[in-house]
């Protein structure tokens, strides 16, 4: 499983449980993988965050997905979420400033569904 992509510890354990392996064997095996550095939650988190950032996902969505995968400690501060929100909005809707309230609300809902917070969304509408 680790040959194709990184997995979190929780993901590995869940996949092995689905294959009906003994719980003690699963824990011992995953412990050994961690000890030998074949599995690393930190490495998984870094790759996962970079992948989702490149897909245009915001920090709220990424943080939620990481928690679902059993990752509680991660650093999202190295990315410029304001620039990403602006870029995503401009790529989808264009660069022009909006005067229509309904259209602006639609675009804000779109960015919110991508996982951006209100500050990042509002900044994406401010002209540089």
UniProtKB/TrEMBL annotation:
Its main location: cytoplasm. One of its GO terms (biological process) is regulation of DNA repair. Gene3D superfamilies: Winged helix-like DNA-binding domain superfamily/Winged helix DNA-binding domain (1.10.10.10). Residues 42-72 form the RecX second three-helical domain. It is found in: Cytoplasm. Residues 82-123 form the RecX third three-helical domain. GO terms for cellular component: cytoplasm. Pfam families: RecX_HTH2, RecX_HTH3. InterPro entries: RecX_HTH_2nd, RecX_HTH_3rd, Regulatory_RecX, WH-like_DNA-bd_sf. Keywords: Cytoplasm. Belongs to the RecX family. This is Regulatory protein RecX. It comes from hydrothermal vent metagenome. The lineage of its organism: unclassified sequences, metagenomes, ecological metagenomes.
């Amino acid at each position: 499983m680790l040959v194709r992509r990184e997995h979190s510890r929780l993901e590995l354990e869940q996949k092995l449980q689905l294959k009906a392996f003994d719980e003690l064997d699963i824990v011992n095996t995953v412990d050994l993988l961690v000890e030998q550095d074949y599995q690393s939650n930190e490495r998984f988190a870094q790759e996962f965050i970079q992948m989702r950032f490149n897909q245009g996902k915001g920090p709220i969505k990424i943080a939620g997905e990481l928690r679902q995968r059993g990752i509680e400690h991660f650093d999202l501060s190295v990315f410029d979420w304001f620039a990403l929100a602006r870029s995503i909005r401009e790529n989808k809707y264009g660069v022009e400033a909006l005067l229509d309230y309904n259209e602006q609300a639609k675009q804000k809902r779109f960015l919110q569904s991508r996982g951006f917070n209100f500050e990042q969304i509002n900044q994406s509408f401010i002209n540089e």
